[in-house]
């Protein structure tokens, strides 16, 4: 932010608009300093507040201009200028600054009201140089012969929302008094200098120490901000807004609940929003950012200026009943208001939150409950006060206010760098439906019993997204097992390539080797409800042995030859396999149960598919297909048996979801001792797909298929 040189403000180099007299400089309040540094860090995102008064009837623009100047002299906020001395910002009240209310006639526009909103939006989203630009602007937009938008925009560093409303009400009061020919009542406002002095006195007081202690307890162990979006992003000049009128039925029930629980509609809304956030984040706790005026004296409440603050509202909403949350919210709001002057920057610093999500300055979504009557008397005419912007939104804001005809409106306002327009529309619909259910909830029932989805979302989830029925029999055959799936595929595509590794096998060759080895295992007692261990590294031999074990009806138990001998011994002792298949390369130290399949002469055995008549008992889908042992990180390894039916169901789903074709090749990379390997071993046989293996030296750096 650059400006021209200032004079008469004490020693040091001054920057700002040149003046000829000597308005007395004075420091910024802590609230203003927070805005100063925020704007300095992001100069292209204006921290403006804006509002307009919708006036139906006659409006004397000249009188409005004149009384606006009078109000500026009383409050000072609209004629503040800023400067710097030795890098430190200061402010001064300069009555010579114009307080212009610019007339803009939009009656010839195709849609004057829309044109007025476009004009206002372009103004309050324009970047403001704190040292060179005017920090306050006003206009009267004429949108009809007897309809006007009285527009006011101020940088947040000179006015907060409460101060802006106070200033606007004072202008309206003076306007009415002048039209009626009477003197207005005294404003009884404090000067901006007195507000700064009051803040300095507060920070040296016991009240400040008590507030610091209160918030220190409230944010103890707070591990970060609540958010419905896990990312952080810069704020934007323009926010996304989606709003609708709240149905009267909900409003009436909120008021009934507030009366029954000795509370207010604002507390009901805050509790509901906290419950909504807790449900969507899956946490018991929700933290809201609660805007407060930080005006604790009558003089402060009659003054303009920038004093507002944002404090955390930390609520345990996950496991509570509705009555418990209402009571908790009422207590926490009362405490927050008693200690509202302690700055949110100090709260975050005290809690050690400065390094958490560095782009986040608040504690969670903002809950801005503005349930005040918005009518303003302007002579014989009544205008309706509308808030256009309270500044850029960091994450998300819930805004509740009285709209036209004194009906309650709910807006969801969000940072467009974090949310899309359809996101906030869904959040709005979901929150309103949640609130509707909540206000009809028995106060002693848990909040977890209330659905958080809209009726449409529930229908989509249950009827559309959950419509995942698959006819297993049609896709895999009646009473399908891994064996029957393999046999069907081998019969359909006998010439297709099945295995690519140290040797290449077509499906017919692959099936022949499987069936011969299976018959040799049956002769040794392998069958349903028995196990056969596989002590073989990743290779075509492992797949042949695995399928052969399944063809007998037995379950395979994979062993990793590189595992410690103690673990291998424990698995064998626990699983009690009929035998252990291995190869010359993988042979470990074992007893007579160990069989080196490289040394078996299987040429005399049939290569036809094995039948139930040959097995020791019929193979059924409910029989275990494998037993894989856990890592044992929480104790001894535990064997987990999974059936043919379960694996077939998984494979049919995977095929319907991912649609592998016969041209695809599956890289078998997961060790057989991990259950994630199961689909790699059995999915390819569904549609004549082939396996390949990475070279052992390629695992750590890049995956390269063995030739």
Automatic annotation (TrEMBL):
Residues 486-690 form the AMP-dependent synthetase/ligase domain. Residues 1-24 are annotated as: Disordered. GO terms for cellular component: cytoplasm. One of its GO terms (biological process) is amino acid activation for nonribosomal peptide biosynthetic process. Transmembrane segments: none annotated. It holds the Pfam family AMP-binding. It comes from the Bacteria. GO terms for molecular function: catalytic activity; phosphopantetheine binding. Residues 27-459 form the Condensation domain. This is Dimodular nonribosomal peptide synthase. It comes from Nocardia africana.
């Amino acid at each position: 932010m650059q400006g021209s040189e200032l004079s008469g403000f004490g020693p040091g180099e001054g920057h700002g608009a040149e003046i000829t007299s000597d308005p007395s400089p004075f420091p910024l309040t802590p609230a203003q300093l927070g805005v100063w540094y925020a704007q300095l860090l992001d100069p292209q995102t204006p921290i403006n507040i804006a509002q307009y008064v919708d006036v139906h009837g006659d409006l004397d623009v000249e009188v409005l201009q004149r009384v606006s100047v009078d109000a500026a002299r009383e409050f000072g906020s609209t004629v503040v200028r800023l400067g710097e001395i030795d890098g430190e910002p200061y402010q001064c009240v300069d009555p010579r600054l114009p307080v212009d209310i610019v007339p803009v006639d939009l009656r010839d526009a195709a849609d004057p009201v829309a044109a007025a909103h476009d004009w206002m939006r372009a103004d309050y989203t324009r970047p403001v140089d704190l040292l060179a630009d005017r920090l306050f602007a006003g206009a009267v937009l004429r949108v009809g012969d007897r309809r006007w938008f009285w527009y006011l925009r101020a940088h947040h560093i000179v006015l907060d929302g409460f101060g802006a409303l106070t200033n606007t009400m004072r202008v309206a009061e003076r306007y009415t008094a002048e039209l009626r020919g009477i003197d207005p009542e005294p404003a009884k406002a404090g000067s901006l200098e007195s507000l700064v002095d009051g803040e300095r006195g507060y920070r040296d007081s016991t009240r400040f120490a008590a507030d610091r202690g209160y918030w220190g307890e409230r944010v103890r162990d707070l591990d970060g901000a609540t958010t419905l979006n896990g990312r952080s992003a810069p704020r934007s000049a323009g926010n996304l807004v989606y709003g609708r009128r709240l149905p009267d039925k909900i409003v009436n029930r909120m008021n009934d609940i507030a009366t029954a629980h000795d509370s207010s509609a604002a507390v009901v809304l805050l509790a509901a929003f906290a419950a909504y956030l807790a449900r969507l984040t899956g946490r018991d706790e929700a933290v809201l950012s609660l805007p407060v005026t930080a005006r604790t004296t009558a003089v402060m409440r009659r003054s303009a200026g920038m004093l507002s603050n944002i404090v955390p509202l930390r609520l345990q909403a996950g496991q509570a009943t509705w009555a418990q949350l209402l009571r908790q919210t009422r207590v926490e709001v009362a405490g927050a208001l008693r200690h509202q002057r302690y700055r949110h920057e100090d709260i975050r610093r005290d809690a050690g939150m400065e390094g958490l999500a560095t782009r986040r300055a608040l504690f969670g979504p903002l809950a801005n409950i503005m349930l005040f009557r918005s009518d303003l008397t302007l002579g014989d005419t009544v205008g309706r006060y509308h808030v256009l912007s309270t500044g850029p939104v960091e994450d998300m804001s819930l805004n509740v206010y009285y709209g036209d005809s004194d009906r309650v409106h709910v807006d969801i306002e969000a940072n467009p760098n974090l949310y899309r327009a359809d996101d906030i529309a869904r959040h709005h619909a979901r929150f309103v439906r949640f609130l509707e259910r909540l206000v009809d909830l028995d106060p002693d029932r848990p909040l977890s019993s209330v659905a958080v989805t809209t009726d449409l979302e529930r229908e989509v989830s249950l009827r559309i997204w959950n419509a995942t029925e698959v006819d297993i029999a049609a896709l895999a055959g009646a009473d399908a097992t891994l064996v029957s799936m393999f046999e069907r595929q081998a019969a359909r595509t006998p010439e297709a390539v099945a295995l690519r590794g140290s040797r290449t096998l077509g499906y017919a060759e692959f099936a022949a080797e499987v069936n011969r080895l299976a018959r040799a295992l049956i002769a040794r007692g392998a069958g349903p409800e028995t196990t056969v261990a596989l002590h073989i590294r990743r290779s075509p031999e492992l797949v042949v042995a695995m399928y052969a074990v399944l063809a007998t009806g037995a379950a395979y138990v994979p062993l990793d030859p590189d595992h410690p001998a103690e673990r291998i011994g424990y698995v064998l002792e626990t699983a009690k396999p009929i035998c252990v298949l291995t190869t010359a390369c993988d042979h470990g130290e074992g007893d007579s149960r160990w069989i080196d399949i490289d040394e078996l002469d299987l040429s005399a055995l049939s290569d036809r598919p094995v039948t139930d008549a040959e097995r020791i008992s019929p193979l059924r889908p409910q029989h275990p297909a494998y037993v894989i042992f856990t890592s044992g990180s929480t104790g001894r390894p535990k064997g987990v048996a999974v059936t043919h039916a379960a694996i077939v169901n998984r494979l049919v789903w995977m095929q319907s979801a991912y649609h592998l074709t016969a041209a695809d090749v599956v890289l078998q990379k997961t060790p057989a001792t991990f259950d994630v390997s199961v689909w790699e071993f059995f999915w390819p046989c569904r549609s004549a797909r082939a396996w390949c293996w990475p070279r052992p030296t390629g695992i750590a750096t890049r995956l390269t298929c063995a030739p």
